[in-house]
Structures are given as structure tokens and as C-alpha cells.
Design goal:
heterodimer, A: alpha/beta, 12 helices, B: alpha/beta, nine-stranded mixed β-sheet, 7 helices, 19 strands
């Protein structure tokens, strides 16, 4: 058996496990100025971009890897990773969806959302990111008519440098924490969205991220700017092929909402979680931060996290503009040996700011789930309010569910309410469903979907279906 | 500080009659403390209030030496009236009197020449400090089936003779099977700028009941830290009530280990702060076996410039099925300069449990004030009434009527 066949053999168990055979260009292994210059050079970036990266790298060298989180992982050797890989011939880039690699299309089918169908029937523009570089972008014309810019980050750097330069790093500066700084130094590609003044984006923008080449940490960078009075809903979803080695994913996502603008950002994450013994799987260490810069602006995060060996992220909102609103809806499911430490930060700076947090955690098998959140109401944020609800569901007595909220109220005119509960699926509920003819697995699926409903409702229609399926798949075999 | 610690430590050793073993033990802890120093915000538990900074700011030169050879005069005027009680009087770091007049002397054992044995290692530098410098170490044992007839009040007194001193107190309580103890800690200080470090260790055997009330009412400029470790066996009950209002800084830590089935722990507290006071309650309840229960209620009323912190943690072991854990904290912020921080934590490893926590903070409800004013009260009265009602909720949780009334009087709550 040659190695490829062996690979395929290994992939069998993972529903979405596959790896596509496209030759890759790789930057040499390791992390140093040379590699950063190589990335910048390959991407033909202007000097200011290279300076941005090098500045971040300078800072990165002084930082220590954080270790306060609950899920521990073996030490990552940052010198033993490839920081750049791209499909070899960019000129062979497919012009339309039909030309896409059938294997890639096959994957999307497995996911339950065929790209073509979705693109055509649902009117979704899909910017499929395939291993760090965009290979297909659809519906561009329609968006261009409205003045909306939706392209890959590398393209934006070339074509819209003024916008990128103005906003990149304003929410997540190059001086941020360890993983964010690493991303600033070595990010390869990602999505860039700009919605002009007063435009309501006519379709849901969507990107599929995929991790492909072995030992490649993916460092995506997404920047979404909603100008005054605009609206955009952005979807992000992911699956990854099976790999034995743990793979690091440290993306940065920056959202900026100006006066009266609204951004809705939804994520369905189903990366490879490792096998049932906890071997392999993706490390998902992502920094997501939104800035409600203008008055009456709104940012809403929705996430369904079912994959990854370790999920460690806190999509946050900085509510700077007066009357701005931040929302966070999350479902996190961990099974087998998965670990998750996730939650949000709501930082209230402006007057009359409001935030809402709904978090649902489900842990099964030997997994461990932590909700960690910060609600900080600054002394100047008069008349602000926050409502937090975090519920956990436990399946079996080998797993754990933890809640660690940090609540800081420095303003006497503001209200904070926090609630959390932890429970299990009761025998009565199961019995009732089974009596109605469902088998135990279906019954659990139904109850769990009911438990998550508040969050699933927030997802756009197409995503909601996929998410519901994922919830079911993730918990397969955890009962009985 | 390091030199100061060593000099003061030698001075104490010269004057005392510790055994070789004790001295070795104390030295170990001194070194531990020298290595770690006062806790700072670098440690997760001290994130909100940094003791190291607070000590630096409030007490410039802290001295660890105290001359314990002289007795202090007991001022009987501060004793609590209207309630017959047993007394332990602790003045300026010296236990002056232990008086169990109301009790059957055969049923209570008080021991002071025991070896300091430490079975716990909490990685807490203040406990090391306590172990190194504590002057006398008592163990109080309540024998099987004996319930103390009257409550025991520990008077924590200081006067102007002490200044910029570190004062340590350590007591061990053992409640044998089916015994019970009501313990009131009453703080009254006329000194300022001292750092008190109190460490109680309670051992509750089967069916025993402990009720501990801590009352820090009179305003003073001292800093205090109190650590209660409570180990509970089967069917035992512990009830802790904290009224945290008087000192400049006060951190109460309660560590409760529910080791026996059907044991339960209740922790209730009130912060009533003003000026630049900074107070904290940190509770940890460890549910280690099946069918245990815990209940926590913390309320804060925060005036100008004050800051309160509540860190509550419920831990549920994989073995501890059928756990009931409940936690609630509420705060009223009266001024734009007041601040409330909370970290209500749940760490759960068992699935058949009912655990919840809630936290709310905000200002007084203007509608309620309006309602009361429309009934003829003035603004100040309405505000007081609302605040009293808010705090009364916690006081009502005190299970002993006599003590509940006493505490209502001390706090000045009217029904």
C-alpha cells in the first residue's frame, strides 16, 4: 500500500475526512523574518504591509504563550510549522464553479450544502478559501453594482490599499496577545468586505475555510467594514480533512461598524476533532473582535462550535459608540476528548449600550467545556445593560462543564444580570420521546435541538439546517 | 521587607518556647512566605483586589514583631449586651481570656500545647505567614452529643497601642459527632493601619452543626484577611454569615469541603461599604460525594468610592451526583464611583446535578422610590427603606432567632 492509500485508509472514520491532491508551494519550515518576507513577497504586497507584519513579529518575539486556559495541549513548536502554502498555479485558477476541483465540490456535498446549488438557488456569494488562497469567487458582479467590495484579503491589499490601511489592525492591533500577533505577522489570506454607506447587502456573504496541507497552520485574516447605515450578514463555515498531527489555526477576524451600521457574523465550525481516543484534531485558537465604533451600531456574533480538538476563542464586542448593541449567541458541543474554552467579552464604553449573551454548552463523552466571559461596564457607560444566560447540558459523568464569568460594573446607572444553570437530560424527557416512537438517539437529538433553539434561530436559514445536522452528528454515539 | 521579616522572626523565637519541631515548621513557612510575598493581582484569586498594593498604599512599613508578654486591659464596655454568651477575648494579637462559663467544662476541651500540624497546603502565602508568626495556637473540641448552651463570641479587639503591625490568629475547632457550636466573630478596632490575618480550621464530624457569624461593623482603617476552612462529614451542616462593613479592607475566604453524604453548606453575606473601602468574599464549595447541598447569597450596597468583589466557586466532583448548588449575588451601586465585580464560577464534572448561579447589579430602582415617596416618605427615608429591605433578605436567612435579632440590632435594621 502506498502512502496515499494509507492516508485514505485513515480517513475512513471521519465523515468529512479527505485531503485533496493539489501540489502546494510551501514557504520553508519555521518562523523568522525571512519567512515573513517570503510570504509578503509571494503575495506581492506593498511595503507598508510588510512593515505591519514585521512590527507584529517584533512584538511576537517578546510575548509568551498564554497558559491560563482550561484545556491544556502539548507544546507547539512554532519553528516546525509551514507558514505558507498555496495551490501551485494561480493561472489555473478556475473561472467558474464548474471548473472547480471535483474533489472539493464533493466535500461541500458531503457537508450537505452543495456549493453550486447554494450559490445558484440561494443567491449566496461564495468565496471558497481553499488552503489559504481563494480559488473561487461568485456573484461578484452583482455585489460590485452596489459598490460592495467582497474579495480575498490579498486582492484587497492590491486593489483597495487605502481601506485596508485605514482599518487593518484597528480592532486587533499588532500589539495584541500571542496568537493574534502571530497572525498579524504571518497571515496568508482571508476575506475582505466593505459595505458602502447606506447599502444593505442583498445576499448573505459566505466563506468556507479549509485546512489542507499537512503541518500548515492556517492564519486567516478577515476584515469586515460596514460604513454608515449599512447592513451585512456574513457566514463562515469550516470542515477539515483528517490529519494525525495536531494542526494549529489562529485566525483573526476584525469587524468595524460605523454609525447606524449592523454586522451579523455567523460561524459553523466543524473541524476535525480528533478520533475517539483524543488523538489528532485541530487547535482552533481564533481571535474575533468587533468594534461598534459609530452611534447606534450593532454587531451580532452567532457561533455553532462542534469540531476541533481544542476550541479556544472569545468573539468580543467593543461597544464604543453611544446606543450601540452587542450580541453573542453560541452553541458549543464537545464529545469524546474534545475541549472547549469559549465565551465572549462585552466591553461597554459608550452611553446606553446594550449587550446580550446566550451561551449553550453541551458536553458528552470525556470532553470538557468551559464558558468564560467578561462583561465590563466602564464608568462612562451610563445607562448600559447586559443580560447573560449560559446553560450547560452534561451527558454522562466523565465530562465536565464549567462556567467562569467575570462581571465588572463600574457604573451605577447600569444593570447587569447573569444567569447560569447546569443540568442533564432527564429520564422523564427521554421516556416521553421514546414513548412517542423515537429511538434514544433521535430523542436526544430532539431534546438537544430544543435546548439550542434560541441560538439556532439566530442563524440564517441555510446555516440553520446544516447546524442542526451537525448538532446531531456531533453527539452520535454519546448516549446508550 | 525580607530583612524585616527575618529580624522580627528571630525576635519572636527568642521570647517564645516553641519546640524544636515547631521552630523548624515555622521556619519552613517563613521561607515560603518570603518566596511568595503578599498575594498580588498576578494570582487569579487576587485579580480584582491586589493585597500587595493595598498594603503598600495603606501601611508603609509593616512590622511582624509583637511583644506578647504584656497583658492587655479588657474593656468590658464593648461586650455585647442582651445575649448571654461564652467569650474568647483577643486583644492586639494576644488571647487574653477564654471563658466557657455557661457550659459543662467536661464537654469542651481546650488545648494549646499541641504541635502545629498542617495537613493542608493551599498554596496561600497568607497561611504561610500565619503559620510562621502566630503566637499561640488553640484547639477547641466539642465532645460527642454536646451542644453549647450559649453562643461563643470571639472579640477581635485592637487599640491604639498597635500600629502598622501584622497580627495573626489561628484556631482549630473540632465538632465531634452530633455536637453543635454557634460562633460569633465580633470585630471592634480603635487602632489603625494594621493587617490582621485570621485562619480558622473547622472539622465537622457526623451530624454536627456549625454556625459562624462574622460581624465587622465599626469603621476602622485596618486591613483584614480571614480564611475559614471547613471539612464536613456525613449529615453535617455549616452556616456562615458575613457582615462586611467596618474595615478599610476585608477579604473573607470560605473553603468548604463537603466530604460526607447529605452534608450541606450555607454561605450568606452582606457588603455595606462607603468611603474608599474595598471588601471581598471568596467562597469555594467542593462537593466531593453524592447528595450534598450548598446555598450562597451575597448582597452588596455600595456607596461612594467603594468596591466589592464576590468570587464564588462551586466544584462538583465526578462522584458527587445529586448535588444541589445554588449561588446568587446582587449589588446596588449608589454612586457613580462605586464598583462591583463578580466571578461566580461553576466547575462541574458530574451529570446528575442541579447547579445554578445568578448575578445582578445596578442602581436603586427609581420607580420604587417614587412609589414610596407618593406614600408620604421623603427621598432619604424611601432610599433607606429599600436598602434595608434589600439587606434584610440575607439576615432573614440566619436560622437562630436570638442571633438574628442581635445582628439586626447591630446592623440597625428594623423590620
Amino acid at each position: 500500500m502506498d502512502t496515499r492509500e494509507k492516508d485514505i485508509e485513515k480517513l475512513k472514520d471521519y465523515k468529512y475526512g479527505f485531503s485533496t491532491d493539489i501540489e502546494n508551494i510551501k514557504a520553508p519550515k519555521g518562523l523568522n523574518e525571512k519567512v515573513i518576507k517570503f510570504i509578503s513577497n509571494v503575495k506581492k504586497e506593498p511595503k507598508w504591509m510588510l512593515d505591519f507584519r514585521l512590527k507584529a513579529f517584533e512584538r511576537f518575539k517578546q510575548l509568551k504563550e498564554p497558559n491560563w486556559q482550561k484545556p491544556k495541549y502539548p507544546k507547539i513548536d512554532y519553528q516546525d510549522l509551514y507558514y505558507y502554502s498555496a495551490p501551485k498555479s494561480m493561472k489555473d485558477k478556475p473561472k467558474s464553479l464548474d471548473e472547480l476541483d471535483p474533489k472539493l465540490l464533493e466535500t461541500y456535498k458531503k457537508l450537505g450544502i452543495p456549493l453550486q446549488e447554494q450559490a445558484r438557488l440561494n443567491g449566496i456569494a461564495v468565496d471558497a478559501v481553499f488552503d489559504s488562497v481563494s480559488v473561487a469567487t461568485t456573484f461578484k458582479d452583482e455585489l460590485t453594482k452596489q459598490g460592495i467590495i467582497f474579495c480575498s484579503m490579498s486582492e484587497a491589499i492590491q486593489k483597495h490599499p487605502e481601506l485596508v490601511r485605514k482599518y487593518l489592525g484597528t480592532v486587533i492591533p499588532t500589539t495584541d496577545h500571542f496568537f493574534a500577533t502571530l497572525n498579524s505577522a504571518v497571515f496568508t489570506d482571508g476575506s475582505f468586505v466593505y459595505i458602502p454607506k447606506g447599502v444593505r447587502c442583498p445576499m448573505e456573504l459566505s466563506t468556507y475555510f479549509r485546512i489542507n496541507a499537512s503541518e500548515t497552520g492556517q492564519f486567516e485574516r478577515t476584515l469586515i467594514i460596514a460604513d454608515k447605515g449599512s447592513y451585512v450578514s456574513y457566514l463562515e463555515g469550516c470542515t477539515a480533512p483528517m490529519r494525525d498531527e495536531n494542526q494549529l489555526h489562529a485566525a483573526n477576524v476584525e469587524l468595524i461598524a460605523l454609525d447606524d451600521a449592523e454586522i451579523k457574523y455567523s460561524t459553523v465550525q466543524n473541524w476535525y476533532p480528533g478520533d475517539e481516543n483524543g488523538i489528532g484534531g485541530i487547535y482552533n485558537f481564533v481571535t474575533k473582535r468587533g468594534l461598534c465604533q459609530g452611534r447606534n451600531s450593532k454587531i451580532s456574533w452567532t457561533q455553532v462550535e462542534t469540531g476541533s480538538a481544542i476550541t479556544w476563542k472569545y468573539p468580543s464586542c467593543i461597544l464604543k459608540g453611544d446606543n450601540s448593541i452587542g450580541e453573542f449567541y453560541s452553541i458549543a458541543i464537545t464529545n469524546n476528548h474534545q475541549k472547549a474554552d469559549t465565551g465572549t467579552k462585552m466591553i461597554h464604553l459608550g452611553k446606553n449600550t446594550k449587550s446580550k449573551i446566550i451561551s449553550k454548552g453541551i458536553s458528552a463523552g470525556f470532553s470538557d467545556m468551559t464558558y468564560r466571559g467578561l462583561v465590563d461596564i466602564n464608568s462612562k457607560a451610563t445607562n448600559s445593560s447586559n443580560y447573560t444566560q449560559c446553560d450547560s447540558l452534561l451527558m454522562g459523568n466523565k465530562c465536565g462543564a464549567h462556567t467562569v464569568p467575570y462581571i465588572r460594573n463600574k457604573n451605577f446607572d447600569s444593570n447587569i444580570a447573569h444567569e447560569a444553570t447546569t443540568s442533564k437530560i432527564s429520564e422523564e424527557q427521554l421516556h416521553y420521546c421514546q414513548q412517542r416512537g423515537l429511538n434514544s438517539e433521535e430523542a436526544v437529538g430532539l431534546i438537544v435541538n430544543g435546548f439550542c433553539k434560541e441560538v439556532l434561530q439566530q442563524l440564517p436559514m441555510e446555516f440553520a439546517v446544516e447546524a442542526q445536522k451537525l448538532v446531531g452528528i456531533s453527539l452520535e454515539g454519546s448516549v446508550g | 521587607m525580607k530583612e524585616q521579616l527575618k529580624i522580627d522572626f528571630e525576635k519572636i523565637l527568642e521570647l517564645s518556647d516553641f519546640s524544636e519541631k515547631d521552630i523548624g515548621y515555622k521556619k519552613d513557612h517563613l521561607n515560603k512566605f518570603i518566596d511568595n510575598g503578599f498575594p498580588s493581582k498576578k494570582q487569579e484569586n487576587w485579580k480584582f483586589l491586589d493585597l500587595n498594593q493595598i498594603i503598600k498604599k495603606n501601611i508603609s512599613e509593616l512590622s511582624f514583631y509583637n511583644d506578647y508578654s504584656k497583658t492587655n486591659k479588657i474593656d468590658t464596655s464593648i461586650f455585647i449586651d442582651g445575649l448571654e454568651h461564652n467569650k474568647i477575648i483577643f486583644i492586639n494579637g494576644r488571647i487574653e481570656k477564654i471563658d466557657f462559663n455557661y457550659e459543662d467544662k467536661n464537654q469542651i476541651e481546650i488545648n494549646d500545647d499541641i504541635e502545629i500540624k498542617d495537613h493542608f497546603d493551599y498554596n496561600n502565602s497568607l497561611i504561610s505567614l500565619n503559620n510562621a508568626f502566630v503566637n499561640k495556637y488553640y484547639k477547641i473540641l466539642v465532645k460527642k452529643d454536646y451542644s453549647l448552651k450559649k453562643p461563643l463570641i470571639i472579640y477581635h479587639l485592637t487599640n491604639e497601642k498597635v500600629k502598622s503591625k501584622n497580627i495573626n490568629l489561628r484556631l482549630n475547632f473540632v465538632l465531634e459527632k452530633n455536637s453543635s457550636l454557634k460562633l460569633i466573630d465580633f470585630f471592634n478596632d480603635t487602632s489603625d493601619k494594621n493587617f490582621m490575618n485570621i485562619f480558622y480550621n473547622f472539622n465537622l464530624k457526623k451530624d454536627s452543626i456549625l454556625k459562624n457569624y462574622k460581624i465587622d461593623k465599626s469603621l476602622n482603617k485596618n486591613l483584614k484577611y480571614s480564611f475559614n476552612n471547613i471539612d464536613q462529614e456525613e449529615n453535617s451542616i455549616s452556616e456562615t454569615f458575613i457582615f462586611s462593613a467596618g474595615s478599610n479592607y476585608f477579604k473573607n475566604e470560605i473553603n468548604c469541603n463537603l466530604k460526607g453524604e447529605y452534608s450541606s453548606a450555607f454561605i450568606n453575606g452582606i457588603f455595606s461599604l462607603q468611603g474608599s473601602q474595598q471588601h471581598e468574599i471568596r467562597s469555594t464549595v467542593n462537593h466531593l460525594v453524592e447528595n450534598t447541598k450548598s446555598y450562597q447569597l451575597i448582597k452588596s450596597v455600595l456607596g461612594k468610592n467603594s468596591k466589592a468583589v464576590y468570587q464564588g466557586r462551586i466544584f462538583v466532583d465526578p462522584k458527587a451526583q445529586k448535588t444541589d448548588g445554588y449561588q446568587l449575588s446582587k449589588a446596588i451601586l449608589l454612586d457613580e464611583t462605586s464598583e462591583f465585580n463578580a466571578k461566580p464560577e461553576l466547575e462541574i464534572y458530574a451529570d446528575d446535578v442541579k447547579c445554578s448561579h445568578g448575578s445582578a447589579s445596578g442602581s436603586l430602582n427609581e420607580n420604587s422610590i417614587f412609589y414610596l415617596m407618593s406614600r408620604g416618605l421623603n427621598y432619604k427615608q424611601s432610599k433607606e427603606l429599600l436598602i434595608n429591605g434589600f439587606m434584610l433578605d440575607v439576615v432573614e436567612k440566619i436560622t437562630n432567632t436570638e442571633i438574628r435579632n442581635l445582628i439586626k440590632n447591630i446592623i440597625g435594621l428594623k423590620e
